[in-house]
Inverse folding.
């Protein structure tokens, strides 16, 4: 067995409590490494074709990586992979916590959960295996409160990863979280909730040696030293909240459901305004960066805040009140809902109200107007509780738009059903491409292609064929980081993430991995996720952006009047498909499937791995 | 006539408080600017520095001579400079703190030295020994004066054939007498910048703003490098993580003119009507 792996996944059917070992062969591990790669491979092998995301047989995969437990900074991460109830395509989200280290200590590289428990349960996993414990007393609690209660019950050395009230009620953008870190996007909390599992508690101390300990230590020392340098200073000193004024200046700050790219009250809800409050900095487990800034409100509540929550619950909803945004973020954390999808869906409803598209809908009568802070908080509470307008908004913007019909769907801010992150695509047109084609929907973390838009000499307001290779290459790099798994905030630290990733993987596993193989891993993982989406019904029409973004010019000082036409987007997408070696229709040719070693998951129906 | 030029930069810069040779001026350091301007109209250039003085990078064909004794004033600097330029017929002498030295004035002084040993600019009743042209053969006279402790330039002019180029003649080619301006104090430096360059705003974001302690920094510059050099001077906390000492953005930083596309060419022209925006390249959340 290569270093860093146990060579097995644990499959738990919470319907009957049965567990089974899933051996993971060396060649499989080497092909997909871990994280989102391993998670996608297990999903492809175990999920029945066309499975409903919230059906008992739909698997929820928690995939570790060979680096988990090593001294490499930021490596205490895991991927959660399932069919997304929001997009009905692949949903993969990452989280950081000591949960990853404890789960690996249980002697597994992945945990797969299927079935539906007869009653609300806690899935307890340790070195002996897995068991279910009653969890009725945890129902209705936030994940943080449930975590506290579980650790009080089992012991402080246990780690917990679970859902809040929104996950219990199958809100389609519910999160799973532990130690305040969320696997946020795509509604994976609803998947766990559909299995009547409130959370997973893990503890384990089984060791998993690395192949070359001295080499790993040397690489870890070097990476840790660099992680404290200027490439991460922004995250350490201010956190991502400082992006808000930058995006506002670049006319890229989505405002009032993408009606504008800059917000007149940006200063009031900026990261700089937040930093006027008392704050502390937190680190994820095994992380030297410490990017998380937790602000104490005037009422004494400590609230973690990132840029994505700040934009989505602030400018996107027309909210210019710092205290409201913090309260909304705290509410989302407690409920266990994704701040981007929550803000995006509420902002969409707000615009529908503004345009009279809710007329005659009594159940949506309380949808607030843009800028109504109290209304925002009320609606967020109702989403978590699935009450009144919250019940429909809990379905996400795509389903709400389809329900409303008429002019509404063209205003819904989503791709494949996943709400857009905090970058107006018209203002960053390479990122626009990345958002349009990402397998999990409108997602900035699966391509991070905004770096290309900020490259000197690049024209961020122009769509052309050069963007395709840039977006594809960014996706490959991101897939490698998400499979290893290392934090994306290290990306500025690496001179060449593929070469350095290969060195780390080699030292941990003992494989002789070079840069070319690492790049092939990235391409394989990107294509694997695409193949799975194709299997689940993906069509070429899904790779697009909300119609309004292709029909209306951008409004905002630095980019006023900029457009992104449908034709331009189609041309960029064609260049992106070509860069990945896909057909002009976005299909994956059989020859490429074979070249990437994906024969065993391309079109394969359910069978044991 | 083979023209030499010598640029004195070995002064102590006491009133300025920092070495004037290194003061940013546009996209250059002050010494680099003066050297470039005299090189454009002279055949050979020598810089006269203090022993051990660190200088900004200079063109390969510019030689460096050194003061032989400290604190000898301009006459002390002329000697090693004129010795190094002995092959020239005459040599224009200036200092590194004269940012507006011009070919027109240099040409005028060379034209007036024809039948003399020295041609020196004169205005307001003062001679300007570092706006003057000297024949290399005055070196022995300079050495005698230095040995006698007679350091005032006027002693030389009394001893050798000197053409005094009056203000009227100077104004004919340099109406504001800019070529005679020296930058001796911080105030004079700011004034010179203001005469040379438009004011433009540099907008700072994320940790650049936090470290500088302000959101907007007005600078005088007309190129990207010029603006970044001024930014580094005015906000020392930005170096080296945001702006390098030589006027480039550090890794992971980006600059945009007006917020549209991003630029990195040092000579990118800037105008006062579009702010320079400095942001982190690590944009994502």
């Amino acid at each position: 067995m290569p270093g860093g792996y146990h060579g097995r996944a644990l499959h738990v059917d919470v319907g009957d409590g049965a567990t089974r070992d899933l051996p993971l062969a060396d060649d499989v591990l080497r092909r997909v490494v871990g994280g989102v790669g391993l998670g996608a491979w297990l999903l492809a092998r175990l999920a029945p074709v066309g499975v409903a995301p919230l059906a008992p047989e739909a698997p929820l995969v928690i995939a570790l990586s060979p680096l988990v437990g090593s001294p490499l900074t930021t490596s205490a991460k895991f991927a959660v992979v399932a069919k997304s109830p929001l997009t009905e395509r692949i949903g993969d989200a990452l989280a950081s916590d000591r949960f990853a280290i404890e789960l690996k200590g249980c002697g597994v590289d992945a945990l797969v959960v299927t079935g539906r428990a007869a009653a609300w349960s806690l899935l307890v996993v340790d070195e002996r295996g897995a068991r279910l414990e009653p969890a009725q007393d945890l129902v209705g609690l936030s994940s943080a409160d449930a975590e506290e209660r579980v650790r009080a019950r089992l012991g402080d050395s246990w780690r917990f990863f679970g859902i809040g009230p929104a996950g219990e009620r199958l809100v389609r953008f519910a999160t799973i979280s532990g130690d305040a870190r969320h696997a946020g996007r795509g509604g994976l909390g609803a998947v766990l909730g559909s299995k009547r599992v409130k959370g997973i508690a893990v503890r384990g101390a089984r060791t998993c040696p690395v192949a070359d300990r001295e080499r790993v230590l040397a690489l870890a020392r070097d990476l840790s030293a660099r992680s404290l340098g200027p490439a991460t200073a922004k995250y350490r000193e201010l956190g991502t909240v400082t992006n808000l004024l930058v995006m506002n200046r670049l006319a890229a700050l989505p405002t009032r459901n993408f009606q504008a790219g800059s917000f007149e009250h940006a200063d009031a809800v900026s990261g700089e305004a937040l930093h006027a409050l008392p704050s502390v900095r937190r680190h994820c487990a095994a992380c030297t960066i410490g990017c998380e800034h937790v602000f104490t409100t005037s009422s004494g509540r400590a609230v973690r805040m990132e840029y994505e929550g700040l934009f989505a619950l602030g400018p996107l909803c027309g909210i210019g009140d710092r205290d409201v945004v913090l309260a909304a973020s705290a509410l989302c954390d407690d409920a266990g809902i994704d701040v981007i999808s929550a803000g995006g869906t509420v902002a969409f409803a707000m615009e529908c109200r503004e345009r009279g598209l809710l007329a005659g809908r009594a159940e949506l009568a309380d949808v607030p107007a843009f800028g109504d802070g109290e209304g925002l908080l009320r609606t967020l509470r109702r989403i978590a509780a699935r009450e009144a307008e919250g019940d429909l908004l809990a379905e996400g913007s795509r389903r709400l738009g389809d329900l409303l019909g008429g002019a509404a769907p063209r205003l819904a801010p989503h791709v494949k059903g996943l709400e857009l992150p905090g970058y107006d695509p018209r203002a960053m047109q390479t990122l626009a491409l990345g958002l349009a084609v990402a397998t999990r929907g409108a997602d900035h973390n699966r391509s991070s292609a905004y770096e290309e838009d900020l490259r000197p000499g690049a024209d961020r307001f122009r769509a052309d064929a050069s963007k395709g290779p840039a977006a594809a290459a960014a996706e490959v790099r991101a897939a490698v980081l998400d499979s290893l798994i290392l934090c994306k905030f290290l990306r500025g630290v690496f001179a060449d993430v593929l070469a350095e990733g290969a060195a780390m993987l080699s030292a941990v596993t003992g494989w002789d991995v070079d840069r070319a193989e690492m790049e092939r891993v990235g391409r394989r993982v990107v294509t694997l996720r695409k193949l799975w989406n194709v299997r689940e019904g993906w069509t070429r029409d899904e790779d697009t952006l909300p119609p309004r973004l292709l029909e209306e010019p951008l409004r905002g000082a630095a980019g006023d009047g900029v457009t992104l036409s449908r034709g331009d987007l189609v041309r960029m997408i064609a260049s992106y498909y070509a860069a990945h070696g896909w057909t002009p229709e976005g299909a994956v040719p059989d020859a490429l499937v074979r070249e990437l070693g994906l024969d065993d998951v391309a079109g394969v129906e359910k069978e044991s791995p | 006539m083979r023209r030499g030029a010598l640029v004195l930069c070995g002064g102590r810069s006491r009133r300025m408080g920092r070495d004037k040779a290194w003061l940013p001026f546009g996209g250059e350091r002050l010494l680099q600017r003066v050297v470039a301007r005299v090189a454009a109209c002279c055949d050979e250039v020598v810089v006269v520095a203090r022993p051990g003085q660190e200088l900004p990078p200079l063109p390969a064909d510019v030689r460096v001579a050194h003061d032989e004794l400290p604190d000898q004033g301009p006459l002390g600097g002329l000697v090693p400079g004129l010795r190094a330029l002995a092959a020239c017929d005459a040599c224009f002498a200036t200092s590194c703190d004269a940012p507006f030295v011009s070919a027109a004035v240099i040409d005028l002084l060379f034209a007036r030295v024809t039948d003399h040993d020295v041609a020196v600019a004169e205005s307001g009743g003062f001679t300007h020994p570092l706006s003057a042209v000297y024949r290399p053969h005055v070196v022995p006279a300079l050495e005698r004066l230095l040995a006698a402790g007679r350091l005032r330039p006027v002693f030389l002019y009394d001893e050798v054939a000197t053409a005094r180029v009056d203000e009227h003649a100077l104004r004919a080619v340099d109406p504001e007498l800019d070529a005679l301006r020296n930058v001796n104090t911080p105030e004079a430096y700011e004034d010179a910048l203001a005469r040379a360059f438009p004011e433009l705003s540099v907008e700072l974001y994320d940790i650049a703003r936090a470290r500088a302690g302000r959101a907007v920094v007005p600078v005088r510059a007309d190129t990207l490098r010029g603006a970044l050099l001024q930014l580094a001077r005015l906000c020392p906390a930005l170096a080296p993580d945001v702006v390098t000492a030589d006027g480039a953005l550090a890794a992971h930083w980006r600059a945009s003119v007006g917020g549209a596309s991003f630029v990195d060419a040092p000579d990118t022209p800037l105008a006062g009507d579009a702010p320079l925006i400095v942001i982190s390249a690590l944009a994502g959340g």
